[in-house]
Amino acid sequence: MVDLSMDMQALVSRLEPIARPGGQGRVLMFLGASRGAGASSVARAFARAAARRSRRGVWLIDLDFARNAQAQALVSPGASSFDASFGRDPFWQAEPVSAQARLVARPAGEHLYITEFQRSRASIERLQFRSAQAYWNAVRGSIDLAVLDAPGAGRAVLPVAGDSDGVILVADESRWDERSIAARRHAIEQQGGRVVGIVCNRSRYSAGQAA
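Above: the chain sequence. Below: its structure as tokens.
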């Protein structure tokens, strides 16, 4: 396993100053430019680096609700959990509306929390992401940083990208594709989002560059 901690410390310093006017937190999304680019590993390393500087907490939110690899990797069995709704309508919608589902957070280290999507077995027929500005504003008022780990394939997460403070694209150097990156940036901007940096993963020279 490659240690990304030094690279992520530098990226945190450039993208995520903890002290901000008004004490508002930020929401940053890590999105693969293609499937298998390593966005989850980069998002995890970034969240852990940011947590070391945080006072109110860093939340790592895995938007792959079906697998939730972040919780599997970082949360100890039997760890306590608490509601992650922040008293607002969520950024996802389940059908039927009567389906029993919720997002919880579990501690995964000092000032670091990982979310986990819980639902009743076979209770959800369809789930989609949606814009939820009130939710993310409540997040900004409560914690220092939310790091969103978004699946690299498909467009389902783009409404959430539009509500974030910035999107960091993660591209695999060995499969670098300018057209794919440009298309992903365009799709994000169409939803009102903003790409603030590109991480060149598995690079021989540098793990990332911030715009």
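The radius of gyration is 16 Å.
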